[in-house]
């Protein structure tokens, strides 16, 4: 089943390929003169492995931003004696003339070049070296492959000049490509004579002329005994075209669909045209007429539609001409036509916009070569996922992931796809998704954030990340996620909603993770970024979620991480703390977050002298009386002072306030707290509290520490009793009970 398929681990072949590509130098290759990759001399690889290496390489360069492409990668496959290639798929700017040139000695059977805009006429010449073996060739979207640099001796008569001073090659044909059966020339540049180009081909089986305008297609009849598949997507049709198509009696797949938004279009599909196809093309199993305007005479009057169970039997077809089919079609493309909403459609698979099944079929059929159609289909899926419930969730997710990977630079697909992902990954679908699938979602979301500074994409991507358990599910991309979020937060002009979500994510990412993670994120500029956000909010005199989350994130990232605490002090963190306290005296959450953070700073012995000023000590002392957020603000202020007191009277380098006076206020504060208070705090370790127990220099610090432990283990025994035992708290408490300097009430509590 689909569920199991998406859950199964990658094959060993896939894992090895991936590993070798990421570590070419340590596996298949060595570096010559520190720059050129060379294959080890004892390596011999068959085409099954080489094809996979090349195709995966292209995939990695396209979809994995961390993967570094190699200038000389294709030269590894230059000698068929050690590496054999047979079927390769190359895409976009990843491939250049010299790459094809490097593999020209290979006996390629299948070569797909999709949207390779960097290829020029040099590559046409290279194609000739594959002419004796090539069976299948695609030049889809290779818009410059028929251009060459203008020859210096002036332009000959037989060439057109295009603006970049390149000239169109007029004399290339498929002469000598004796085995070529399958050819895709989609989006071929204007000015190339298709008929002349193709004439030498003896027996074509499949031809794709998407997006090419040809007034005369009579030459197609030269393959009427061999052509089984013909694609004329977005070609302006006329009666002449229809007559020619009707003669191609061997056709099994015919696609005359169009993008109804692309241009004004005179041709209308009629009952007569469809009848002609059904009568003449008796082998037809797949037909695509998406985007066409239908004349209403194609449908059966609704009175006559046999109601009851939906049927795919041709005899019951709601589309009149299809009643003449011998058997249902395997595929019928009706996307953006009125016919897809009819009751009885004689096909096993229909692309359309009526329901989830039709929409998914459309995304599946059009993703590769028709992003303009796919983005509209994904938009329909977005509505289904948002308003109804998706019944084919895994299929939907996989199709959207594929579309986003395939069209990384297509804004429409990135916008609609990222929005659909948000709804497809939310909690109600959670149970149906494997770890592997959820990781794929995270990868494409991060790709989107990386390639697009566009507000909608950024917002959709950030929102989608909120559907995951953080930090656990993002752990495998931890560095990258943080870098991306920080770069969003460091942009000068910012969208409020994105800022809010990004700060929330940053906060969640540094909560409950190991210290080495926190240190790494600190080095990325996390502390500085948060302080800048706080500074901006202060200047606007606003205390909103961004302000609170930023302080909360600083509280989390400084937890037991001295380097980050030091950064906080070095970047004027204390100045901002005082200003926020003054500007927002009533904001309880804010006070709690700020003091939690200062508690972390106070735990670092080397940094405590920086807190030893009259101003700071007065502020902390006054906050002892705060009733903000229950006991939290008072508790944290007392914690900060407990660590300062622990350094002894000689460290008290100020005249005002007096040390004894502050100690008195600390005792009063602790005695005013309810010992059964439920807490808004989360300890991963008791170490900073436990170190205040075995000492006689500051009994009040000892008392604060004992109170803290007593409260936590009595209110949350399941969580904190094991922690206290694990970290060796019991013997420390026992020893303290025996200490003469400890106060009686502290000993009682310890007992």
By CATH reckoning, the class of the domain at 612-750 would read Mainly Alpha
Beta content comes to 5-15%
- The helix content is 40-55%
Q: Give the count of helical stretches.
A: 30
Give the mean pLDDT: 91
> Count the strands?
15
Largest sheet: 10 strands, parallel
* Unreliable parts: 1-5
Named at the architecture level, the CATH assignment of the domain at 612-750 is Alpha Horseshoe
Strand order of the largest sheet: 3-4-5-9-10-11-12-13-14-15
Radius of gyration: 35 Å
The helix-and-strand class reads alpha/beta
Outline: elongated
Distance between the termini: 60 Å
Task: Look up the CATH topology of the domain at 612-750.
Answer: Leucine-rich Repeat Variant
Keywords:
751 residues, alpha/beta, Leucine-rich Repeat Variant, 10-stranded parallel sheet, disordered N terminus, acetylation, ubl conjugation pathway, Zyg-11_UBL_adapter, repeat, leucine-rich repeat
